[in-house]
Design a protein that fits this description.
By secondary structure, the protein is an alpha+beta fold. The chain has one domain: Nucleoside Triphosphate Pyrophosphohydrolase (Alpha-Beta Complex), CATH 3.90.79.10. The protein has two helices and eight strands, in the order βββββαβββα. A hairpin with a 2-residue loop joins strand 2 and strand 3.
């Protein structure tokens, strides 16, 4: 018997001056759409290592984890299949902003003027903003 399991992913939310760090996706799904930096956890890697690696690869920024924002597991969140994303609030440590890896572009966008983001990332950003308002 073969079992199907969800894939494990991570996303990083970096908020700065009422703006959030976003990448423009280079590849499908959601090609050319803005999204939080993140990706799949590699075998033998912790989710904490994965989020810092993915953010560095996609944005050029070295970051550190501030807190766990939440776990997002809606089976419909990714058209490629069921993914479970562990999402961290992160902050910039060093490095210069530059798009790399799966990112066609990278920038900070004002959280009051966000476009429709890829996956469930609008909900994730809203959850992060709500957390900041209550801290």
């Amino acid at each position: 018997m073969t079992y199907k399991n969800p894939s494990l992913t991570v996303d990083g939310v970096l908020l700065k001056n009422k703006a959030v760090l976003l990448i423009k996706r280079k590849h499908p799904p959601f090609q050319h759409q803005w999204a939080l930096p993140g990706g799949f956890v590699e075998y033998g890697e912790t989710t904490e290592q994965a989020v810092m690696r993915e953010v560095l690869e996609e944005t050029g920024l070295h970051t550190k984890i501030v807190d766990l924002l939440g776990v997002y597991s809606d089976p419909q969140r990714d058209p490629r299949g069921h993914t479970v994303s562990v999402v961290y609030l992160i902050e910039h440590v060093n490095g210069e902003l530059s798009s790399g890896d799966d990112a066609a572009d990278v920038t900070f966008l004002n959280t009051k003027e966000l476009p429709n983001l890829a996956f469930d990332h609008n909900k994730i950003v809203q959850d992060a903003l709500n957390r900041m308002d209550h801290s």
